[in-house]
Specification:
mainly alpha; disordered C terminus
Length: 243
């Protein structure tokens, strides 16, 4: 069966977005998104891990015994995260200091292990790489969006200190949208992450609801559900009665 790359992209950006669709990786989404720059740095690091983990696990899926697949996946992800952590420390040290412990904690990100288990271990390398890229970009967009809203309404800037944290080539991204803007301090503080993320989740829910008919909503509510390996709720398959 041909791979539907369009559906994979839609899942990564919207339907199964790591933050707004599956409600995973909320720890970094709430903790390090004080600015859009921090969100961008964390998102790019997580995207690199997602792509590498999906590709390696897909390539090895036929030689990994099912009984030890989860420990093996965690070991592979841990090795990749270690490499990414060392690379950030070497080339973007200031960003590495800001993100701190959250880089090693990518190992425990349920989204990365979930994609390895639910997609990469069941599909070929190219679709798995594409899935990792789309999920990573969707995650990055979510982090940047939360960080941007908190930064704009919290301090009146956008991508502040991008040249310091990401390198001089990113200086063009730094903007002061509201000069002498006192801002709302609560948005910069940890509660701001909950407030902004909650509003964005509500907006996505409204958009999704408008795209469904009443019959589809009733059918979805009646369908029995169970947690999948990726952490999302899905309908339980019902077998037809034997004739």
């Amino acid at each position: 069966m041909a791979t539907d790359y369009g559906k994979i992209a839609r899942d990564g950006f919207w339907d199964k977005n790591i933050v707004f669709g599956q409600l995973l990786a909320l720890c970094p989404a709430l903790a390090i998104t004080g600015t859009a720059t921090n969100g961008l740095g964390m998102g790019l690091a997580s995207t690199a891990v997602l792509i590498a983990a999906n590709g390696i696990i897909s390539a090895l899926r036929k030689v990994i015994a099912p009984e030890i697949r989860i420990p093996t996946f965690v070991l592979i992800i841990a090795c990749i995260v270690t490499v990414v952590d060392m690379a950030l420390n070497a080339w973007v040290h200031d960003l590495h200091k800001v993100l701190g412990l959250f880089i090693p904690l990518i190992v425990t990100n349920c989204a990365i292990l979930g994609r390895a288990e639910s997609f990469a271990s069941r599909n070929a390398v190219i679709p798995s790489l594409w899935d990792g890229l789309m999920m990573g970009i969707g995650f990055t967009v979510a982090l940047v969006l939360v960080g941007a809203l908190r930064e704009i309404f919290g301090s009146g800037t956008l991508f502040a200190n991008a040249s310091v944290l990401l390198g001089s080539h990113f200086a063009f991204m730094e903007m002061t949208l509201f000069p002498d803007f006192p801002g709302f301090l609560i948005l910069i503080l940890p509660p701001g992450g909950f407030i902004v993320t909650g509003f964005l989740l509500a907006i996505k829910a409204v958009i999704d609801a408008r795209g469904k008919s009443i019959d589809e909503e009733i059918e979805e509510m009646r369908a029995p559900k169970v947690f999948t390996a990726a952490g999302a709720l899905g309908p339980v398959p019902v077998e037809e009665d034997a004739q």
